[in-house]
Amino acid sequence: MVISEHQISAWLASFIWPFLRVSSMFVAIPVFSGRFVDRRVLVGVSLLITFFTIPLIPQTEAFDIFTHAGIITGFQQVLIGLMMGFVLQLVFAAIVFAGQGIAYSMGLGFASMVDPASGVSVPVISQFYLILATLLFLVLGGHLVLIEMLIDSFRTLPIGVDGLERVDIWGVIAWSSRLFSAGLLMALPAITSLLMINIAFGVVTRAAPQLNIFAVGFPITLVLGALLMWVTVPAVMGNFTNLLAESYGVIGTFLRIGDGRG
After folding, report:
1. Taking the chain, what is the end-to-end CA distance rounded to the nearest angstrom?
2. Beta carbons of 115 and 31 less than 8 angstroms apart
3. Does residue 13 contact residue 74 with C-beta atoms inside 8 Å?
4. Whole-prediction pTM value?
5. What count of Cα atoms within 13 Å lies in the side-chain half-sphere of residue 105?
6. Cβ distance 87 to 182 under 8 Å?
7. What number of other Cβ atoms are within 10 A of residue 122's Cβ?
8. DSSP string of 177-235?
9. What integer pLDDT is reported at residue 13 of this predicted model?
10. Where in the chain are the domains?
11. Predicted pLDDT of residue 240
12. How far is 81 from 20, CA to CA, in rounded Å?
């Protein structure tokens, strides 16, 4: 049996292009892209999912991976995977933004720690919310939904030179403003309550100038801020869940899943 060079190139392409899309998604999505995750584990998981996905991929036009069309196709697969992860990164960045707003209102902006996922310093309040959001994301099976959408994307957005369009990229860029609006919505109840408390301290200071407001107000602000966090945790996590569902809608839009374009 003689195997031609064209057949070898076609077999290689049938594995490389799905692997690029799968591995790019795992490199970008939260939790799995953290520094605490061994890269060999990510490669192994990507290879395993690609191996089981290849039989489900519809047959497409075969061409050499080292041609101009092959390079463009590979770039499209990487872009699709990275955009899926980028949208979810915005969701987790929104809850970090909310934690920062609450921390600064409580006077805990200086209390920061290194986030093991991103490697940057964030306030401890943001880290607290981030841990809760990560656990909620895993409990709800958010990673499983994303893997299912990834597999479906090979049917709705087949491997080829024609992949994501300019309107899809601009749609994700426009939706990225939700990072600030959703983060502010999560933190607004606590920020508003703490603002009213600080206004009350200002009135007290005006009425009794001899009172050391810094010695009295800071502990009270911390205690009331912690109490407000405990009271508003269900609302914050509820807003996070809604934003997560909205992000899946955005991903499904540019993957042509469930929007009538598949």
Report:
1. 40
2. no
3. no
4. 0.83
5. 28
6. no
7. 20
8. THHHHHHHHHHHHHHHHHHHHHHHHHHHHHH-TTS-HHHHHHHHHHHHHHHHHHHHHHH
9. 72
10. 5-254
11. 92
12. 8
